Amino acid sequence: MPADTNTDRDTDVVIAGAGPTGLVLALDLARRGVRALLLERAGGLFPGSRGKGLQPRSQEVLDDLGVLPEVLAAGAAYPRMLAWEGAERRGAWDMIEHSEPTEQVPYANTLLIPQSRTQELLYARLTELGGAVRFGAELAGLEQDEDGVTVELTGGETIRAACLVGADGGRSTVRRALGIGMTGETVDPRPMLVADVRIAAGAVTDRAHWHVWRARDGGVALCPLPGGDGLFQLAATFEDAAATVDTTPEGVRALLTARTPLTADEITDVPWASDYRVRAALADRFREGRVFLAGDAAHVHSPAGGQGLNTGVQDAYNLGWKLAQVLLHGAPAALLDSYEAERRPVAAEVLGLSTRLHRATADGEATQRGKDVQQLGLGYRGSALTVDTRPETSGDALRAGDRAPDGPYGGGRLFDLFRGPHFTLLTIGTTAPPPLPRSVRTAALPSYAPYGPGVFLIRPDGYVGWAGTHAGPTLDAYLTAVGLTPAGPTRTEATAA
């Protein structure tokens, strides 16, 4: 898959699905100068609040992509849970553990924001960078060869691209066209309902709490959504596995009036509703030739712990820079092998976590969500794209493959230095590196304990790719493997005392 300027192709990358995963990938490719066509079979962006939690690691991704200030302004901290018995309050507790920000972790808490609003902000940023979404365009089939992928739309139109990414959800057309199976299980055979409901001011459901009722036929949870317009996300369970879930506005109103003190006239609107049964499944492969799977097309989660959307966002963040390096900068095609090698084990680990949390909650355990759901500790130490030439260290010492921590740098932060589509070579307490390619930003610090002394090459997705006591031949080999010339005439340099 060499870098080229094949004019017979309509675009470099076709992305199927304009959910959070597809939007993040399109945005990342746009800032790298990769031509991408984002297809969405629906007539517009997804309208519901479904994936309403952005974990700290995903907030770091959105910081890098230049959209986090708007996301933070549109979001809010998670409220306390409040248990009810009929119209009587029974006690409050925190499901989401609160953490204080630190130098290393500036975004320390899960952010409450409706999925629809996250997508709107990603879409706005994409259009700022010249990208777009082609709505009403549904993929019908695909064929690939040594030179590219031909995508067929339902109307008969064909599009030629170097690569295709299926980010088209749990029922992925791309995955099915490839014949890739999903291995998994039904986490809970009982149906669930999730909906957005607007509740009139003055009802028992104040906006300071996440309200919970338990009934013989199932529970109800109403979480206030930021925005000040009275919108709540409703999640309802059913004890009868054969229950029929009515997702009409009338059905949602009937359920709420039966299980809570709310009256029908206090439920002023039901703009979106859906039913589902909780499954956990992992695609057998994340890649077939020039076609890749990401997000729910590659892994389907329980909503417990808020892992699905966030894992998809980080799939896209992992894949985007690798596609750019191969398609535009001459990196070996083998670089793309690292996508599945890195992301599939992470997805498997996260699936296990969300399944355990779901079952514990279903069994009545008050399981608090803490650092295990924040995704800050996930990394790629075992990846072929990870090289650490320093002596082995013990405990929690930073190693290649780990997330690169934030910290003070000059008058700002290391994240300011990392932000953008480039690699960063960070030298701490040792001699400066030799000249590097223009696309590598270099910086030096006299000391910083979270890293320790050494030389650290930070990948564009914020992980330490290479680490050593000093620059040398293994760094040169690493640069070649990711499509960078080991020695160059100029470099972007920054220093801080």
What does this structure look like?
With about 500 residues, this protein is α/β, with parallel strands linked by helices. The chain has helices spanning about 20-30, 55-65, 70-75, 115-130, 175-180, 250-260, 310-330, 335-360, 415-420, 475-480, and strands spanning about 10-15, 35-40, 55, 75, 80-85, 90-95, 110, 135, 140-145, 150-155, 160-165, 180-200, 210-215, 220-225, 230-235, 265-285, 285-290, 290-295, 300, 385-390, 410, 410-415, 425-430, 440-445, 455-460, 465-470, 490-495. The protein folds into three domains: about 10-75 and about 110-185 and about 280-375, FAD/NAD(P)-binding domain, CATH 3.50.50.60; about 185-280, Alpha-Beta Plaits (2-Layer Sandwich); about 385-495, Glutaredoxin (3-Layer(aba) Sandwich), CATH 3.40.30.120. The protein contains ten helices and 27 strands. Strands 1, 2, 8, 9, 10, 11, 17 and 18 form an eight-stranded mixed β-sheet that branches. Strands 6-5-13-14-15-12-16-19 form an eight-stranded mixed β-sheet.
Keywords:
single chain, 497 residues, alpha/beta, FAD/NAD(P)-binding domain, Alpha-Beta Plaits, Glutaredoxin, 3 domains, 8-stranded mixed sheet, disordered C terminus
